[in-house]
């Protein structure tokens, strides 16, 4: 494996909530390599968006460190953003409704490249639109966001991020608000960027099937903690952590078509509150295999062959 | 036997300069105890269909043509009073966000009591509270939660409570509008499991509307695919999955990457859904259709039954007069 | 916004008075000319609004008063709105220590007893012409607006599009002026309108209390003069009714515009337009 571009090392994030504390992310470790896509999969409240925002430096971690090119990041994030960009979930919210497509792209180009002439600027902007397949480009340049469909907006957002020529792209559920029939085109675009530009990509999603389609590695989060990670086919075909198992079994899968599976799914419980999370493994109250140890001690990271790892006492003891 | 027969239902929005047709000549029937899935993307008319079906529509939406026959009465012609008698007892609705259905300043149990007692005047207060606890128990919410306020319940519990509320007066038909879109996959599975069990025990029929076709393929008995305000294909979940006839249905099915079978490059459907203010002539799907041929941009295909498949109808010129050419 | 009839009527009234103020010197007569042949006369063909105790034409005075009152109103609004923007927007945008400081400052002005302070300051400053009065009103009247703008900027500055532009390296100055501020124009123009009307009212009140320079002509000074000459007791209603009515009309206009702005910022207050409901009914009946 090559040297990671961006790393989170044992980062935690606690938010104050009145007198109590929300433990949104605890001890998360993640590495992004050039040309590789890591999918971060979890339900709402699993901490996946908080982790993305930590990596985007919207707020500092409570503990742990974020490393870019092997160096701990600190100080003002301006320089950081020429290497790391985040794509938001909502393409309607991430473009200012008052600015045309042209304005967004031109600003990004001007801020990161010494363009000398109008022609050079126009050329750069056109290239960006072509890279996200918004062609013919003249058709889109002078449009306002409200004149574009959700998919087109998300492409503009990606083009704007690409203007910076980043090394890392963080996608926070970038397709979940798009129409089903155009989601795959967006995933294919992200895949192309990884291949062509060697971008390191973090794909955050709740949809494990789309994660499998796009990514190389899968990391599963539950209630603010990472529970399992590894090559995607290994994790999906042979989930080691009981939560990963539950998540895969719960995902819609037309190939399954066995209704009995649905009937016994009634009492699966709910994720815990992050204000006062369960001691030990945070999944233990719902885990069919929970042992005494699981209730008291947090399972450590168990390293397995082929880059596979999990936080589960079942594997640690095995 | 059918619970609900919809024929030629057409809904226009009349606020702009010219009417916008959100539902166009929608025809289908719902059999007793059946789960009919309705799948569609934004602008397909599925939400408009829901409000028209349940007669919850408000101006500028107007039903301009068609009938909705529910147990022998045409819902379109009923007045507000007659509709009120039908609601809850025969026809109930579950919305996407339980917060829209539950009153935030009333205890959950009290809302059940309200509904129960307004439809059964002989029911005493104490009995009504006991029944409310039973109903919540039915969806796996413990009896002590009767006294909770909606905000004290988790999102999944609230959605389950609103399903229990919809079932409070034993309706024959429950219309569900994206009931699991706001909850996570694990909770989604729990809720669907409950709906399936309750359907088996109580025998109500369901119209289940969602954008998530992969979910319907597992859950529904039959599925209607909507596009551009029309139903383009109806069939059993099995036949729609294994042999979708309409190019849109095929594209939509292939827009969901598989969870287990080998991966191949998928492309989704190029282009974007039609703008209903300015609908394409002929078949609404023709601008995005890879199989279009001469005339698709002029002739509007009718929903026709496919030969030898009484349960499968499709509106596409690839299948003239019901020939099954694939 | 212009679709609402309330806003349209309110804005028409305001436009009328602004025009009156601008064109005043052209259409009205000399407000200071004393016609000794007609003193305290009721409205007549010669003096449409009648005359004052001093034989001055009330119409000419009302027209000239519009100029005085509107000048104070617009100046006061401009000063107040500017301070509100300079304090409120950075407070909301930057948050943290900047916000704490500016917010403390705003709250200080918010709880100050404005009228007594204005009286003291006006009494202290010699020669209270329209500019000084406008300055005083503006300086004491920005805090409410600053609070509103702070709240709006606070929510805007955490919107995705601002974060996204910050991520591509846009400096704070541009983020404030090109991303945040344009979204506040509705609030700012409503605030300006409000400030203007408040300024007119405040000027009238101060003039009535005798704070302003009695040499200048405004609606306030007119009413004050009428009051001093016991116009009410003597039944000289034409002296004080026109300026009073003008002030009341401006207040009405403000209320109407405000209703309209409320409906826009809070869609729950919006009614389905009548025409739509009628049309829907027609389609159903057809």
From TrEMBL, chain A:
Domain of life the protein comes from: Bacteria
Domain ABC transporter intervals: 6-248
Residue span of region Disordered: 248-269
InterPro entries, per the entry: AAA+_ATPase, ABC_transp_ATP-bind, ABC_transporter-like_ATP-bd, ABC_transporter-like_CS, Oligopep_ABC_C, P-loop_NTPase
Entry's Gene Ontology molecular function annotations: ATP binding; ATP hydrolysis activity
Keywords (A to Z) from UniProt: ATP-binding, Nucleotide-binding, Transport
Keyword Transport: yes
A GO BP annotation: peptide transport
Pfam families in the record: ABC_tran, oligo_HPY
PANTHER family named among the record's database cross-references: ABC TRANSPORTER, ATP-BINDING PROTEIN, TRANSPORT ATP-BINDING PROTEIN
Family per record: Belongs to the ABC transporter superfamily.
Name under which the protein is recorded: Peptide/nickel transport system ATP-binding protein
Organism: Kribbella rubisoli
Lineage: Bacteria, Bacillati, Actinomycetota, Actinomycetes, Propionibacteriales
From TrEMBL, chain B:
Protein name: Peptide/nickel transport system ATP-binding protein
A Gene Ontology biological process term: peptide transport
GO molecular-function term, one example from the UniProt record: ATP hydrolysis activity
Keyword Transport applies: yes
Species this chain originates from: Kribbella rubisoli
Entry-linked InterPro entries: AAA+_ATPase (IPR003593), ABC_transporter-like_ATP-bd (IPR003439), ABC_transporter-like_CS (IPR017871), Oligopep_ABC_C (IPR013563), P-loop_NTPase (IPR027417)
Keyword Metal-binding set for record: no
UniProtKB keywords: ATP-binding, Nucleotide-binding, Transport
PANTHER family, sorted: MALTOSE ABC TRANSPORTER, ATP-BINDING PROTEIN, OLIGOPEPTIDE/DIPEPTIDE ABC TRANSPORTER, ATPASE SUBUNIT
Family: Belongs to the ABC transporter superfamily.
Residue span(s) of domain ABC transporter: 4-253
Pfam families: ABC_tran (PF00005), oligo_HPY (PF08352)
Automatic annotation (TrEMBL), chain C:
Alphabetical list of CDD domains matching this protein: TM_PBP2 (cd06261)
Every ABC transmembrane type-1 domain range: 70-258
Main location as per UniProt: membrane
Entry's transmembrane regions: 70-93, 105-125, 131-149, 175-197, 236-261
PROSITE patterns on file: ABC_TM1
Protein topology in the membrane: Multi-pass membrane protein
GO cellular component: plasma membrane
Keyword check for Cell membrane: yes
One Pfam family from the record: BPD_transp_1
Subcellular compartments: Cell membrane
Gene3D superfamilies attached to this UniProt entry: MetI-like
A GO term, aspect molecular function: dipeptide transmembrane transporter activity
Keyword line: Cell membrane, Membrane, Transmembrane, Transmembrane helix, Transport
InterPro entries: BP-dependent_transpt_permease, MetI-like, MetI-like_sf
Protein family: Belongs to the binding-protein-dependent transport system permease family.
PANTHER family registered for this protein in UniProt: D,D-DIPEPTIDE TRANSPORT SYSTEM PERMEASE PROTEIN DDPC-RELATED (PTHR43386:SF1), OLIGOPEPTIDE TRANSPORT SYSTEM PERMEASE PROTEIN APPC (PTHR43386)
Protein name in UniProt: Peptide/nickel transport system permease protein
């Amino acid at each position: 494996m090559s040297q990671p571009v961006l790393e989170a090392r044992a980062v935690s994030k606690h938010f104050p909530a009145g007198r109590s504390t929300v433990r949104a992310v605890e001890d998360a470790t993640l590495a992004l390599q050039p040309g590789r896509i890591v999918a971060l999969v979890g339900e709402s409240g699993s901490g996946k968006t908080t982790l993305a925002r930590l990596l985007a430096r919207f707020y500092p971690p409570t503990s742990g460190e974020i490393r870019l090119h092997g160096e701990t990041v600190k100080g003002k994030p301006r320089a950081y953003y020429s290497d790391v960009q985040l794509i938001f979930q909502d393409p309607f919210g991430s473009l200012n409704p008052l600015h045309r497509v042209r304005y967004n792209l031109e600003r990004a180009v001007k801020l990161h490249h010494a363009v000398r002439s109008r022609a050079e600027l126009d050329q750069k902007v056109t290239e960006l639109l072509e890279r996200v397949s918004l062609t013919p480009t003249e058709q889109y340049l002078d449009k306002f966001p409200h004149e574009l469909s959700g998919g087109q907006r998300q492409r503009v957002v990606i083009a704007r991020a690409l203007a910076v020529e980043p090394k890392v792209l963080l996608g926070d559920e970038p397709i979940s608000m798009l129409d089903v029939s155009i989601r795959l085109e967006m995933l294919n675009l992200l895949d192309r960027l990884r291949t062509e530009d060697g971008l390191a990509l973090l794909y955050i999603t709740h949809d494990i099937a789309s994660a499998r389609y796009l990514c190389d590695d899968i990391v599963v989060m539950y209630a603010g903690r990472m529970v399992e990670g590894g090559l995607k086919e290994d994790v999906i075909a042979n989930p080691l952590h009981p939560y990963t198992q539950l998540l895969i079994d719960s995902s819609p899968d037309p190939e399954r078509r066995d209704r009995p599976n649905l009937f016994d799914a009634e009492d699966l419980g709910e994720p815990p509150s992050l204000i006062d999370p369960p001691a030990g493994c945070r999944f233990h109250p719902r885990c069919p295999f929970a042992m005494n140890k699981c209730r008291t001690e947090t399972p450590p990271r168990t390293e397995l062959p082929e880059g596979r790892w999990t936080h589960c006492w079942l594997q640690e003891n095995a | 036997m059918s619970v609900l027969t919809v024929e030629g239902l057409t809904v226009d929005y009349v606020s702009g300069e010219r009417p916008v047709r959100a539902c166009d000549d929608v025809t289908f029937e719902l059999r007793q105890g059946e789960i009919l899935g309705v799948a569609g993307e934004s602008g397909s008319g599925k939400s408009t269909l829901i409000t028209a079906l349940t007669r919850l529509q408000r101006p500028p939406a107007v039903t301009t043509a068609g009938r909705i026959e529910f147990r022998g009465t045409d819902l379109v012609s009923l007045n507000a009073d007659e509709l009120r008698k039908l609601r809850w007892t025969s026809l109930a609705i579950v919305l996407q966000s339980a917060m829209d259905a539950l009153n935030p300043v009333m205890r959950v149990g009290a809302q059940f009591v309200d509904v129960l007692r307004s439809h059964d005047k002989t029911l005493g207060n104490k009995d009504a509270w006991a029944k409310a606890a039973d109903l919540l128990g039915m969806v796996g919410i413990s009896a002590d939660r009767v006294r909770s306020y909606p905000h004290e319940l988790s999102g999944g519990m609230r959605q389950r409570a609103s399903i229990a509320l919809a079932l409070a007066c034993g309706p024959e038909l429950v219309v569900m509008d994206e009931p699991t879109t706001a909850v996570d996959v694990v909770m989604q599975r729990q809720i669907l499991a409950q709906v399936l069990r309750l359907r088996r025990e109580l025998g109500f029929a369901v119209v289940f509307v969602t954008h998530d076709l992969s979910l319907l393929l597992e859950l529904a008995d039959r599925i209607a695919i909507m596009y551009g305000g029309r139903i383009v294909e109806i069939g059993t979940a099995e036949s729609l999955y294994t042999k979708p006839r309409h190019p849109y249905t095929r594209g939509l099915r292939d827009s969901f990457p598989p969870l287990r079978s080998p991966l191949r490059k998928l492309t989704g459907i190029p282009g974007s859904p039609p703008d209903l203010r300015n609908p394409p002539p002929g078949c609404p799907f023709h601008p995005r259709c890879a199989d279009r041929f001469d005339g698709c941009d002029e002739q509007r295909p009718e929903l026709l039954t496919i030969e030898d498949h009484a349960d499968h109808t499709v509106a596409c010129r690839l299948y003239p007069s019901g020939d099954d050419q694939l | 916004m212009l679709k609402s009839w309330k806003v349209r009527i309110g804005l028409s009234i305001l436009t009328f008075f602004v025009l009156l103020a601008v064109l005043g010197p052209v259409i009205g007569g000399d407000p200071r000319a004393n016609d000794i042949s007609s003193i305290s006369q009721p409205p007549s063909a010669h003096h449409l609004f009648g005359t004052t105790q001093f034989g001055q034409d009330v119409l000419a005075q009302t027209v000239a008063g519009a100029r005085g009152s509107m000048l104070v109103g617009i100046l006061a609004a401009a000063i107040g709105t500017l301070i509100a923007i300079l304090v409120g927007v950075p407070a909301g945008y930057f948050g943290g220590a900047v916000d704490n400081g500016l917010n403390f400052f705003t709250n200080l002005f918010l709880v100050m007893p404005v009228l007594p302070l204005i009286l003291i300051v006006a009494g202290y400053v010699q020669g209270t012409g329209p500019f000084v009065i406008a300055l005083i009103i503006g300086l004491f009247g920005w805090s409410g607006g600053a609070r509103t703008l702070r709240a709006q900027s606070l929510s805007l500055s955490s919107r995705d599009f601002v974060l996204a532009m910050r991520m591509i390296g846009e400096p704070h100055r541009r983020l404030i002026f090109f991303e945040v501020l344009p979204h506040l124009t509705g609030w700012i123009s409503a605030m300006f309108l409000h400030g203007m009307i408040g300024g007119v009212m405040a000027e009238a009140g101060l003039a009535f209390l005798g704070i302003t320079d009695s040499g200048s002509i405004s609606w306030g000074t007119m009413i004050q003069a009428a009051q001093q000459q016991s116009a009410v007791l003597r039944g000289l209603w034409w002296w004080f009714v026109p300026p009073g009515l003008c002030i009341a009309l401006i207040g009405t206009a403000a209320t109407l515009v405000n209703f309209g702005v409320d409906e826009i910022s809070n869609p729950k207050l919006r009614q389905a337009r009548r025409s739509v409901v009628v049309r829907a009914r027609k389609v159903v009946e057809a």
